[in-house]
Amino acid sequence: MPLQSDQDLQPKPPRKDYRNMEPVGYILIFFSIFFGLLLLWVICNIVECIMAWQRRRTKKLSDLEPIPIDEYSDSEE
Fold this sequence. Notes:
It is a single chain. The protein is mainly alpha-helical. It has helices spanning 6-9, 22-63. The longest helix is centred in the middle third of the chain and has 42 residues, at 22-63. The protein starts with 5 loop residues before the first helix and ends in a 14-residue tail after the last helix.
C-alpha cells in the first residue's frame, strides 16, 4: 500500500457544477421568445397605424372638389 502524501490528503476544491444552470437557459429562451413576440406585435401596430393614417389622408384628398383646368392657365384669352 503506497503512502499518501500531505497533498493527497487535502480536500480538492469542488468543481463547478453546471447542471444547476439548466433552468437559467430555459428562462433565457422563454424571455427571448416573449420579448421577440412583443417587439413583433409593437412593429405590426405601428405599421397598421401608418397605413390607417395614409388611408385617411388619401380619402380626404379624394373628397376634395377638383379645380377646373381653366383656373390653372396663366395666359389670358
